[in-house]
Structures are given as C-alpha cells and as structure tokens.
Amino acid sequence: MRPTLRLALSAAILFSAATVQAEVRQAAPDSFYLAWSEPVSATRERTWTALVAVSSWWSDEHTWSGHASNLSLQAQAGGCFCERWNAGSAEHGRVVMALPGDLLRLETALGPLQELALKGILGFWIRSNEDGSTRIDVEYRVNGAATSGLEALAPQVDAVLGTQVARLRRYIDTGKADEPPIAADVRASPEVARAAMLEQWKREAEAASGVQAPAAKPAKAKAGKRDPGPTP
Predict the structure, then answer these.
(1) 227 pLDDT more than 80
(2) Which of 25, 158, 200, 213 is most buried, judged by most C-beta within 10 A?
(3) Contact assessment for residue 159 and residue 20, using Cβ atoms and an 8 Å cutoff
(4) Rounded Cα distance, 71 and 56, in Å
(5) Nearest to 108 by CA among 54, 67, 146
(6) Three-class SS state of 90
(7) 120 beta partners
(8) For residue 124, what are the domain limits?
(9) Domain count across the chain
(10) How many other β-carbons are positioned within 10 Å of the β-carbon of residue 107?
(11) Is residue 190 part of a domain?
C-alpha cells in the first residue's frame, strides 16, 4: 500500500474510532492525559521482555506500512521506536528512559498526531501489587498549542491506544495479541441473526411512519364456558 494512502487510512482510523475506553483523565484544547492499568499474569521480567517486543503485539492497522512486523524498538535511551519497509521508514517515537523490569518511557506523537506538531510522552510502568502479582500502568500525555483542539481528539486517541494496551496485555498473558475467536456455540445462527435484523428494520420503519403494530388480540374463551357477567 502506498504511504500516502496508508497515512490517510491511519488518520481515519485514529480520528473516527468508535470504541471508547473511558480512560481520559484530563482533556483541554492544548492537552490531554490518558491512563490505563492492567493486571498481567507474568513476572516483571517477562512483562518487560514482552513489552519491548513491540512487533509482536502492536496492531497492523496502526502502522504506516500495514505490517507490525516492520516495527522495531531499541530499549535504551535514544533508541528508536521505528518502522522500516521497502517504500520508506518512520520514527514513531524515541526512548527517553529505559529501566528494564520497571519503566519504558518514549517521546512520541503517535500516528497522525505527528504532523500536528504536538509533543507526547508515553510511559509503560511495570509494578507489583501487594499480593505479589504484576500490573502494567500506561500513561500518555500530549501537549500542543491552545488552538490544537485536543479535547476533541482525546477520546479517539484513547480508543486506538486502548486497543494497543489490550493487545499488549493479551500478549503478556497468552503469547498471542489477537482476541480469541468467538466460540461457535455462542454465535447466533444465520437464520436467527436475519430474523433479528428484519424485526429491527420493521420496528424502525413503523417508528418512522408513526404506525404502530396492531395490539395482540385477546385470547378466545373456551367453548361451553360463557362469561356470566358481573355478579348481582
């Protein structure tokens, strides 16, 4: 796919994402702050190893080339979070602090935010809970000019980055970043799905025309049993 087309598609994905993660902690015209906290079933060392293997859990859809396998991350100060493919290359971010097993912090304006001249700091904290289990805390802070309109962008950025955090958690826990397929026994059959769709269309058409479906008729009295009427 040509880079210009990939740029356009990436922008559309970022700015029109429908999923809302409800993790926007602060949003204003010149800044926003997003945060997530996810429990993981791994040691801090294993969590770090998975975290820096970014090509294994980042989504193909949120790359310029269309393939996360083209991503690389040098987990040291000054290291590049980069993407390289035959048609070009891109720097997604640059490592400003790397403490193996504890913290990975990058300076990055992700995706289409790059061309808006924004400054962003993305941090991945690996922490231990009181019971000894591990969690990963992710924070993304972005700042720009007062005219940047970042309060409107925050929910969409949150949705896209929230997808990456969920993929990272699954990769740490299972070694696979993709969501597991839905079991066949919980999927609706084509007939059931079609009937539900037709019923929905019918209700929407009735609502639009102002015509209500006829009320159900009362049940007929059984033969031989007449209503005696009110008792005198």
Answers:
(1) no
(2) 158
(3) yes
(4) 9
(5) 54
(6) strand
(7) 142
(8) 22-174
(9) 1
(10) 14
(11) no
Q: Quote the tokens at residue 165.
A: 């955090």
Integer Cα distance of 57 and 79 in angstroms = 19
Q: Which helix (H) or strand (E) holds 37?
A: strand 31-40
**Which tokens go with 121?**
């700091």
Count how many residues are written for the chain.
Answer: 232
What is this structure's pTM?
A: 0.70
Tokens standing for 22? 């409800």
- The phi and psi torsions of 147 (rounded to 5 degrees) equal -95, 10
Q: If you average pLDDT over residues 162-180, what whole number do you get?
A: 94
Cβ-based neighbour number of residue 77 at 10 Å: 11
**Mapping DSSP to helix (H, G, I), strand (E, B) and coil, where does residue 47 land?**
helix
CA distances from 116 to 88, 110, 137, 140, 144 (A): 20, 10, 26, 16, 8
Backbone angles phi, psi at 127, to 5 degrees: -130, 160
Residues 48/101, Cβ–Cβ less than 8 Å:
yes
Residue 229 burial by Cβ neighbours in a 10 Å radius (0-12, 13-18, 19+): exposed
State the sign of the Cα–Cα–Cα–Cα dihedral 222, 228, 230, 231: negative
Residue 112 CA to residue 166 CA, distance in Å, equals 21
Give domain status of residue 83, yes or no.
Answer: yes
CATH number at residue 146: 3.30.530.20
- 97: closest CA among 117, 122, 118? 122
Q: Two tokens at 132?
A: 């000894």
158's tokens: 């949150």
pLDDT of residue 176: 95
With 0-12 / 13-18 / 19 or more C-beta atoms within 10 angstroms meaning exposed / middle / buried, residue 156 is middle
Residue 10 inside a domain? The answer is no
